[in-house]
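Hey, I was hoping to borrow your eyes for a little while. For a while now I've been wondering how a particular protein folds. The fold is given in discrete form, as structure tokens running alongside the sequence. Could you read through the record and tell me how the tokens relate to the sequence? Take your time with it, there's no hurry, and the full record follows here:
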Amino acid sequence: MGRYIFAVHSNPVAGREDEYNEWYSGRHLDDLLAIPGVISARRFMLAEKQTLPVAHAYRYLALYEVETDDPQSFIDELTTRVDTDRMPRSTALSRDLSAVLWKAL
């Protein structure tokens, strides 16, 4: 079975960080974990201290570990669920985000 990391960089809408974090940790992680093949989910916030100066566009990172022999089925299921009752998107989430699927070597 193939292993993947689905990495999502995101930010809250200005002035709505608490609402964003409550939705992300209290609802959205569970919505992703309900997708077949998703076996773990973790969130991170950009640390203030870095080894090198960093001008990073995103303050938050979510990593989802996915096990599947058919990564397209994960992508299809994810896109089918987004903006439905099964995976509502908070208005506190900025629409400027990055979502990338990485294959483990």
Observations:
- The chain is about 25% helix and 30% strand.
